Amino acid sequence: MASTAANTAVPSCPVPFKDVDDGTVPEHTPKDEFGDLVAALPRRHQSILELRLFHGFWLPEHWIPGTIAFQRRFSPRRDDVVLASYPKCGTTWLKALAFAVAARGAHPPAAGDHPLRRLNPHDCIPFIDEIFAGGEEAKLHALPSPRLMNTHLPYTLLPDSVVTGGSSCRVVYVCRDPKDMVVSLWHFLRRAEPELSFAETFESVCDGTVAVGPVWDHVLSYWRASVACPDRVLFLKYEDLLLDTGAGVRRLAEFMGMPFSAAEEAAGDVEAVVELCSFDKMKGLEVNKPGGGTAGRYKAMPRDAFFRKGVAGDWANHMTPEMAARLDGVVREKLEGTGLAFA
Ligand code: A3P
């Protein structure tokens, strides 16, 4: 697969990153290159993470060299699609849906040998800043078009080559009710740090010092971009996807310039994508079960950690009404006048 992708006729659809990443690209970390810059940034601890305040966001320290390299060196292709999210807001699901939509020419969603039945979505679509952190840009060059990549960086930290300068590269963002995000984040972090208290995670979200936060600034960075450039930035909500996944799949396909044809609609391809990427189907796959290994950027995290409950409203099982009202209040105040709200 690697040689096909790199050297010969370029397929018209993405291939799983893991199938292209054949392990032959040497790594050279840019860490030393930006070491002084990182060391000069304000820092704080959160859970097991060392955070640095970088252009208004508390990024995990080890992300920053890759972020800078990404900002300086990324050259987008016309049909690139960057999937973006704040962590625990539906990244894995969005990756699965986007891959299934974009790869449907070569991999019909109902096919028994579909890559998403053997690979975790994080193995199909790479974290772009992680690629740059490892100095592995050659892997990106080897990906056939359209390339699908993802990031947890806010819009304001994406490279100029993506956000300005006439690039027609598209960005899809998924957000989620911050109350459910914080519950999901706590469960996720506890896989690596079992003693972590919910209260500590909650407080860090409320005061804006959580990793990749403040959350409201993250969400607003993409919201504003989607309002200013709706053709280039698609803004989705996890809760809307849950309510009508088929509508989300159609929107995604249209936005990526590959709408479902009447024949595909009649054949039930939209429903097949929804089914392929459904929580129960993905959680039940061998590769995503406990012991199924680790994935993508989260090399220390087992793949099953990405599939917990997959619902809206689980916050009610973890926080008091007072806590919920407090977080809602903080977020409402920050979003006021922007046209964006969480129900
Ligand atoms: P919960 O912890 O609330 O269950 P991310 O992919 O950004 O890390 O987000 C993880 C959250 O998305 C988890 O939420 C996870 O269960 C949920 N999720 C993962 N795959 C999903 C799917 N196919 N459908 C719906 N939700 C999914």
Automatic annotation (TrEMBL):
Enzyme class, first EC level, given as a word: transferase
Keywords: Transferase
Gene3D superfamilies: P-loop containing nucleotide triphosphate hydrolases (3.40.50.300)
Family the entry assigns: Belongs to the sulfotransferase 1 family.
EC numbers: 2.8.2.-
Coiled coil: none
GO function term, MF aspect, one: sulfotransferase activity
Organism: Digitaria exilis
Tagged with keyword Transferase: yes
Name listed for the protein in its UniProt record: Sulfotransferase
Domain Sulfotransferase: 79-339
